[in-house]
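thought: user wants a sequence for this fold. calling inverse folding tool.
action: design(structure=
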């Protein structure tokens, strides 16, 4: 699974990055980790900010799923990422106590009150996909073996 995780910049280190790290530990591919943009914690130029926006956009566009971690405080960026996902017909989910407060979040495939619930749901889907791919590889290997034995 290819996943992009959006969230509030004020929570990038305390909420979003730990979920990114946990997803990676479960084998999920993160399409872009915006929490690690170099220079974020200092004054930045328009060129840097433009490059970050383009990287975020590419991350959303290359994802199978976008997870919006709705922050506790109002944030602007994730609404843009929702728009990119919807424009590209990429499914998104949302989580957080304030998730239902944004009308565009109500367009999500699923809304979770707790981030941890969203995390578990994504990991469960990923693990099922991995198991299906393993079965498919085993099936293909068995077919190749049968072809080899019959010749």
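)
observation: tool returned 151 residues.
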């Amino acid at each position: 699974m290819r996943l992009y995780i959006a969230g509030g910049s004020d929570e990038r280190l305390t909420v979003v990055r730990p979920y990114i790290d946990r997803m990676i530990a479960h084998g999920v591919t993160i399409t872009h980790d915006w929490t690690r943009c170099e220079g974020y914690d200092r004054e930045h130029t328009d060129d840097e900010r433009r490059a970050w926006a383009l990287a975020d956009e590419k991350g959303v566009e290359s994802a199978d799923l976008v997870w919006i971690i709705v922050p506790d405080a109002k944030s602007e960026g994730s609404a843009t990422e929702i728009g990119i996902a919807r424009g590209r017909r990429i499914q998104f989910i949302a989580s957080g106590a304030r998730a239902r407060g944004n009308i565009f979040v109500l367009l999500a495939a699923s809304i979770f009150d707790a981030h941890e619930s969203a995390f578990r749901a994504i990991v469960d889907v990923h693990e099922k996909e991995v198991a299906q791919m393993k079965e498919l590889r085993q099936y293909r290997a068995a077919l190749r073996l049968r072809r080899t034995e019959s010749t």
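thought: summarizing for user.
answer: Here is the designed sequence. The first strand starts at residue 2 and ends at 7.
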